[in-house]
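Researcher: Sequence recovery benchmark, item below. Answer with residues only.
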């Protein structure tokens, strides 16, 4: 069991513990931030929502340039600096009073978070062999969920206390967690800037060969249309992200007779399943072909989850509980498969000297899902009911099947060895 949660000794374990450190703080932040900004800072809920939307939009734009800095200046130093920057941004929330300072602090937080995610991926790529990256990312995802669960428990204690000091303690803990993360990242060996590591290889005469123009192009990731299509399709798959935090709670409260405590139980079910089974799920994903198959299979499972969720409306209390529980199990199975497949694709199709930049671009899908997901889910589920659930699942299947040809085109352009044919249907 331990091997599923903790990677082997070495850089991979340090990366996991760094992830654990800041995820504990983030878990506490996530469950308390809305009430902190409204009750302590004194902002109206709509202003909080507007400010966070603006902040994550800014963060989505910052991921690519900050990832490029990680590639060119060194991933470890950039990751450490951005972890410290995130700590400073969280700390600034303790002193902001008013809407404009809040938006500025939130923009700084979202920017540092987006850049840190890209720099970490570049650091991982520099320290871990290509064939081991998806497995390590599965370990990191399990670690992330464990930390979020612990942090959410600590945040719950602060909510129970309901005092200004308790909220301050949560934000101080989150800031401290990122400083601890930065300290752990400093323990990793340095990774040479990608421009140095992949500047070219000498030919038989000892002359340094030029890299392809695509790798030297400053707008490489933005002009790489096959990779951009892949990232867009992955964004469609990620629209399910706010499901546990927003879509299902609203559905349960307004369309079913299930008890309110089931919302928390389904969250625990999801995080626990990812902790225990994400590494095993990722074990079968070893290349482009297996990645696209995993994404396609997970989409069908997600369609099944949506259909079962829809059945929870208009039935008895315990029938609703049963349907929602089965749906949640199917949903987390789909989530783990889609995550493993997308990790493999995002790394294998990125040029070696631009991993940070490309990961920063691919990671914007998470930001877009966080920004648009609530609007999409509330419109589909609360507005359309059962047809909305089926449309959500159907869109997931369509996007997953489009991954096959998109991956083939991206692989041809990068010269990646497909091994076996990539499924296209």
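Model:
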């Amino acid at each position: 069991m331990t091997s599923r949660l903790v990677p082997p000794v070495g850089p991979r374990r340090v990366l996991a513990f760094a992830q654990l450190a800041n995820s504990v703080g983030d878990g506490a932040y996530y469950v308390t931030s809305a009430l902190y900004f409204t009750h302590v800072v004194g902002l109206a809920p709509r202003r909080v929502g507007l400010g966070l939307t603006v902040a994550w939009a800014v963060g989505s734009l910052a991921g690519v340039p900050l990832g490029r800095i990680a590639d060119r200046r060194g991933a470890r130093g950039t990751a450490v600096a951005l972890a410290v920057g995130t700590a400073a941004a969280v700390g600034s929330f303790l002193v902001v009073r008013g809407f404009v300072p809040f938006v500025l602090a939130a923009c700084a937080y979202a920017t540092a978070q987006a850049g840190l995610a890209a720099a970490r991926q570049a650091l991982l790529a520099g320290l871990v062999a290509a064939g081991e990256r998806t497995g390590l990312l599965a370990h990191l995802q399990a670690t992330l969920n464990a930390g979020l669960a612990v942090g959410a428990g600590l945040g719950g204690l602060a909510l129970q206390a309901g005092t200004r000091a308790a909220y301050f303690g949560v934000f101080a803990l989150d800031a401290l967690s990122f400083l601890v993360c930065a300290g752990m990242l400093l323990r990793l060996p340095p990774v040479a800037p990608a421009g140095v590591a992949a500047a070219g290889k000498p030919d038989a005469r000892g002359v340094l060969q030029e890299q392809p123009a695509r790798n030297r192009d400053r707008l490489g990731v933005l002009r790489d249309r096959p990779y951009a299509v892949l990232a867009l399709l992955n964004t469609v798959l990620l629209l399910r992200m706010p499901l546990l935090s927003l879509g299902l709670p609203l559905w349960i409260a307004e369309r079913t007779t299930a008890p309110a405590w089931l919302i928390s139980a389904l969250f625990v079910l999801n995080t626990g399943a990812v902790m225990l089974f994400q590494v095993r799920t990722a074990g079968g994903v070893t290349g482009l072909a297996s990645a696209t198959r995993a994404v396609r299979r997970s989409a069908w499972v997600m369609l099944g989850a949506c259909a079962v969720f829809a059945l929870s409306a208009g039935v008895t209390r315990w029938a609703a509980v049963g349907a929602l529980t089965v749906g949640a199990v199917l949903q987390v199975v789909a989530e783990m498969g889609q995550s493993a497949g997308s990790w493999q694709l995002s790394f294998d199709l990125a040029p070696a000297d631009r991993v940070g930049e490309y990961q920063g671009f691919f990671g914007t899908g998470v930001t877009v899902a966080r920004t648009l997901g609530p609007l999409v889910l509330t419109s589909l589920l609360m507005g359309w009911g059962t047809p909305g659930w089926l449309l959500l699942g159907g869109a997931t299947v369509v996007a997953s099947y489009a991954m096959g040809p998109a991956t083939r085109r991206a692989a041809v352009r990068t010269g990646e060895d497909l091994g076996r044919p990539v499924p296209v249907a």
